[in-house]
Design goal:
6 helices, alpha/beta, 31% helix, D-Maltodextrin-Binding Protein, domain 2, 2 domains, 27% strand, 8-stranded mixed β-sheet
Length: 226
């Protein structure tokens, strides 16, 4: 009987050894470009990626450098000059901000336009302290700057004396460090020693895709829209 038992054991071993492992689903990695103003939505999308089993490869960029030939999707604020398929995943309020120690108080649309175009150069002109106004904006091609200029300036140019912040973090820090400064921020990016004194507009947060979405991209967009 021993030879028979050994033969059976050997046959079982060969069957187990030659059995192919069960196939596993291939991991999906998506390249995601996003602007600095859209960073909060990339964080939201990252949570969706965990839920849907997708890995995101982040690629932060200036709005003018978004390139869907090198990405599976992109996230930005505002809908200016968009040719690709776009899906709204939320909205954000675009704010005018000042240092918390600035005594001027709430502004209206006319005063905002006058301040950012340089018609008002001293806070004393609008019941503030006798100090020069320091305007801060983003580069003209940035999504948040485009939305601001369309909604608040009605085609008028920003004062040439304005200083540039490249990111919302830089904008927040610049305004927090200067009691005479004024700038703009999306509400979701507001932080630090700043106060909002005027709400310019509500702007959409968009996911852009190079073509009609499928598979993992569709699942991500659906999750982000909930």
């Amino acid at each position: 009987m021993k030879p028979i038992i050994s033969s059976l054991l050997l046959t079982s071993f060969l069957l187990v050894s030659c059995t192919s492992p069960a196939p596993t689903a291939a991991a999906v990695t998506l390249r995601v470009q996003y602007t600095a103003a859209a960073a909060p939505w990339f964080a939201d999308l990252s949570a969706c990626a965990v839920q849907t089993g997708v890995t995101l490869q982040p690629d932060p960029r200036l709005a003018a450098a978004l390139d869907l030939t090198n990405a599976d999707l992109a996230i930005r604020l505002g809908d200016s000059n968009i040719a690709s398929p776009a899906y709204q995943i939320g909205t954000d309020e675009l704010l005018v901000i000042v240092n918390r120690q600035n005594p001027t108080g709430l502004l209206n649309a006319g005063r905002v336009r006058a301040l950012f175009t340089g018609q008002v150069r001293n806070w004393l002109e609008i019941n503030g302290t006798d100090a020069p106004v320091q305007v801060w904006v983003f580069p003209s091609a940035e999504d948040v700057e485009q939305a601001f200029e369309i909604a608040a300036l009605a085609g008028s140019p920003v004062t040439p004396d304005a200083r540039l912040a490249m990111t919302p973090d830089e904008m927040s820090q610049a305004i927090a460090n200067d009691v005479n400064a004024i700038g703009i921020l999306p509400r979701r990016c507001k932080m630090g020693n700043v106060s909002d004194v005027y709400t310019i507009a509500e702007v959409p947060a968009l996911i852009l895709v190079p073509a009609e979405p499928q598979g993992a991209v569709t699942a991500l967009i659906s999750c982000a829209q909930k």
